[in-house]
Design brief:
The chain is α/β, with parallel strands linked by helices. The chain contains ten helices and nine strands. Strands 1, 2, 3, 4, 5, 6, 7, 8 and 9 form a nine-stranded mixed beta sheet that branches. The chain is globular, with a radius of gyration of 18 Å. The structure holds S-adenosylmethionine (SAM). The site of S-adenosylmethionine has 20 residues, from α4.
Length: 255
C-alpha cells in the first residue's frame, strides 16, 4: 500500500497513552494464539540465553515465552512509557498467579529501535511482533537489531500483512461478531506489504554473511535473519528464497 508507506515517517512511532490501553484490551486478547505460536518458535529454537523483544508493548509475547521456559533471560524494549507501565502490571499479575511468586525473568527497558542502548552481540535472539510497521526507518531498525544479536544468533521480525483482505485477518482472530470484523479492518491497515520486503532487497541492506529468509504466512510476514559466527568479507548478505509458511499464502503474494 503505497500511501501507507508515504505517510509512515509522519506518524508517531509509539502508541500514545489512551490507545495503548485500548490496544491491550482489544487487540492483544484476539492475538493470543499468535503470541503462543511465536513463543513456541522461540523456545524450540533456544533453551538458554538472552532474548530481546523489540516494541514489546504490553509484553504478552515475553509472558508466553516465560511460561514455556523459565531459564531464558527476557528483555522487552519499547518507546512508550504507557505500554511499559501496562507490561509491568501484567508481568506482576503473572508472577502472582501463574508463577506462584517466582519472578518471570522479564526485564523492561525504555528505548528506541533505531538506537538500542545495548552492547553489540548482547542477545542470542532478537524478536519483534507487530512493531515493525511503526518504525520510521525499518531497514535501520533491522540493522540495529542485528548489531545487538550475538554472532550465530537470529533476529525474527513479525508483522501483519496489508495485502490480504480484512476478512482473512478477521477469520484468524479470537473475537466474535462486530469485534472480529472491526479487528479484521484494523489489522489490514497495521502491517506491511510482503512485496516491499523480498529477501533479496532486505539482504542488500545487511552485512555480508548474514542470511535472510522471508516466510509469508496467510496473515503475517516473518523476516528471519541469522548473523554469521564471524565477520565475513564481501558486499551483501546471503538471501534464501521467500519461504511459504506452514499455511498457504494468498495467490497474489507468491506471483
Ligand atoms: C502494535 S504494538 C505491538 C506490541 C507487541 N509487540 C505486540 O505484539 O502486541 C507496537 C509497539 O511498538 C512500539 N514501537 C513503535 N516504534 C518503536 C520504536 N521505534 N522503538 C521501540 N518501540 C517502538 C510501540 O510503542 C508499541 O508498543
Amino acid at each position: 500500500m503505497k500511501w501507507l508507506r508515504k505517510i509512515r515517517p509522519y506518524l508517531p512511532q509509539e502508541i500514545p497513552g489512551p490507545m495503548a490501553v485500548l490496544y491491550e484490551k482489544v487487540a492483544t486478547g484476539a492475538l493470543c494464539g499468535f503470541y503462543r505460536q511465536v513463543a513456541s518458535e522461540v523456545t524450540s529454537s533456544l533453551t538458554r540465553g538472552r532474548v530481546l523483544d523489540v516494541g514489546t508493548g504490553p509484553g504478552h509475547l515475553l509472558i508466553e515465552i516465560a511460561r514455556l521456559n523459565r531459564d531464558l533471560e527476557l528483555v522487552g524494549v519499547d518507546l512508550s512509557w504507557k505500554m511499559l507501565q501496562i507490561a509491568e502490571s501484567l508481568i506482576r499479575q503473572e508472577t502472582n498467579t501463574h508463577a506462584h511468586g517466582k519472578g518471570t525473568g522479564i526485564c523492561l527497558v525504555r528505548g528506541e529501535v533505531h538506537n538500542l542502548l545495548f552492547p553489540d552481540g548482547a542477545f542470542d535472539l532478537v524478536v519483534s511482533t507487530l512493531s515493525f510497521h511503526h518504525w520510521h526507518n525499518p531497514m535501520r531498525g533491522i540493522q540495529e537489531c542485528l548489531r545487538v544479536t550475538a554472532p550465530g544468533g537470529q533476529c525474527w521480525i513479525y508483522d501483519l500483512r496489508t495485502d490480504v483482505p480484512a476478512r482473512t485477518h478477521a477469520e484468524s482472530v479470537t473475537a466474535k461478531g462486530l469485534g472480529r470484523w472491526a479487528l479484521g479492518w484494523i489489522f489490514k491497515y497495521h502491517g506491511v506489504d510482503p512485496k516491499d520486503y523480498r529477501a533479496r532487497s532486505v539482504a542488500q541492506c545487511l552485512d555480508a554473511g548474514t542470511t535472510v529468509e522471508v516466510e509469508v504466512h496467510p496473515t503475517y510476514l516473518k523476516l528471519k535473519m541469522e548473523k554469521p559466527l564471524s565477520k565475513v568479507r564481501g558486499k551483501t548478505a546471503r538471501c534464501k528464497n521467500e519461504l511459504v509458511g506452514s499455511m498457504a499464502p494468498s495467490e497474489e503474494t507468491i506471483s
